[in-house]
Amino acid sequence: MNDDLEQKLLAANETIGALRKRLMSLEGGGDRTPFQQQLKAYQDRIEEEQHKLRLSQAWAHLLVENSMDAIVGMNDQGIITHWNPRAASMFGWLADEATGRPFSEVVIHKMPQGGALPDSTHYSGDESSDGNLVGQLVEVNGSHRDGSPIPLELLLSVMKSQGQKQFVAILRDISERKKTEAALQVSHENLERQVQERTQELLDSNALLTDAQKAGKIGTFTFDLKRACWTSSEMLDAILGIETGYNRDIKGWLDIVHPGFRHKIWKYLKREALKGSQTLKIEVKIRRRNDGQQRWIQGYGRVMKDAAGRPERLIGTVQDITESKQFEEHFLQTQKMEAVGTLVGGVAHEFNNMLAGMTGRLYLAKLAVQNNNEALDHLGKIEGLSFKAAEMIQQLLTFSRKGQVTKKTFDLVMFIKEAFKLHRFSIPENIRMNTSFSQYALPVDGDEVQMQQILVNLLNNARDALEKVNKPVIDIRLELYEQPLDATDLSQENQHDRFAHLSVSDNGCGMSAETRRHIFEPFFTTKDVGKGTGLGLAMLYGAVETHQGRIEVESEPGRGSIFNIYFPLSEAATQKLTEQPGLPLAGRGETILLVDDEANLRMTGAEVLTRMGYHVLQAADGLEAVEEFIANEDDVAVILMDIVMPNLGGVAAAQEIWKRNSNVKVIFCTGYDKEEVTDEKDLRGSAFISKPYRVDELGQLIRNMI
Question: Which residues does the UniProt record annotate as the domain Histidine kinase (predicted)?
Fold first, then answer.
């Protein structure tokens, strides 16, 4: 480019010199002719253009030498003819080192595909050639003198000077831009990955939310307060029992709400939602549209306002809380029963104390009229009625027990007989009851409260199944079941081969196979809302499992149901039932310490024991008992101790006495339930007897202790 300017300047100088000589020769002749004037104008004009050319040359040189890009000049063979300072700093070659070397050796070793270097080997010299890069901005890979790569942006230009083609390459180092682009690419990829991950998380969360809503029976809604219409989620539709085309306006909503709650919800919405309250919470009962079931729902909502601050929409959730309500009702009922149980326990204690005094006096009365058979007969019947009353009170005590499981060995035959008497009143009189009980004792290790629950639930279930039967019948059977030697279904699970088989059957509505599969699930019920909690058979199943038993159900629709329950027998051998009490065993003058805070009961007991042949010491409470024992420690053979007393209870008094003499025998007697008053304390093998007790039973127990 500089050579071309110099050639133009030389040509202009030659022209100016020739014109100047011609002008001087003409001026020697006198005044200037028009031709001379014209030459003068040409000369001035050429000098002006020459000045402009020099200025342009200076600017071009300044730009090339101070450019931030490398500028390299080449001839048509690709040999470097010019090398600006930036090229020297960029590629590590000084100008005199680079000049004369091939461009392909110093700057770019390999051009991009489809391009050619301007040398005799690759460049045709035809600017229209497919391999020509002239005028194209391309990215190429160059290299520093030390071999390190340099990403470049190349713009190749061509010009002619003195008939020769010259090339100018402008090269820009784009290393920083490449780093930025790479960083942006990494950032973009990271962002893309995060977007994909977040999208997947949202999809997963949405799926989890949907599953959670289904599991929790939670639906969502939006209520347009201005248009008085609402939309609902799929889960809410299922809760309300509505289809897609259901009319979702105010009337449509109120039609779902139970009539007894419509005024409440309408009043609540007008008071809270329409006046702009932020949050709402309400519980109402509904009637599902598809099946008419009554369900409880709980709604949470939030009022959304428009730009003017007026209530616009109500959004929120609705949850089916029917099971929670049923459980709450069952819990409240349980609390009521516990309160009743506490009351029954206290009343039963007082009745037992009175009955104990009565039976003691009856025993003494019979001794006084031994020669009067008629009087003995009347007194015996009164005594029998007293003990039947005591048995009923004992059933009430057992019923009032809390939920703890306390197993003991007892005869299931006698227990079921007495429990049936207690609960027979709950069965309507129009239902015929058939019973068949084994003549042999069937001892089991069980909890009396749970055994009662089992019988009550079986009877209630049979009763409910007979509501629409003309001649309802319930059969109760209890018999010995011995596992056949070649059978394994029961023995494999229980490791027993002898069972008490309790069967309760009815001729009621029966059950389908699908219902049978679910009857033991908590809260499952086929009864109308409000008529059952769905917990009875679930509790029954749990109680049978607790006793290592097994339950089987036979039933078909319209053909009644049979519940068969098998309880493994205790290790004690079965024996023939006997209910006749023996005669009291006489004492031999041994000393008995009788402790009771009821004076009448204590005096009656002392007289009975004296008549039985014992020497009796008395104490009114635990403190007196300890003092009396200390004073007569060597003489006392047995202590007959009431449990619930003022000052110091029977158990605490016995423990104080055992600190002095760990071998002393104690018989605890109580009108309460044993487990309610002993609190599982260490009682050293002592015995228990319940008030009121039979004199013969007490006599046998004392002789066994002595």
Answer: 346-571
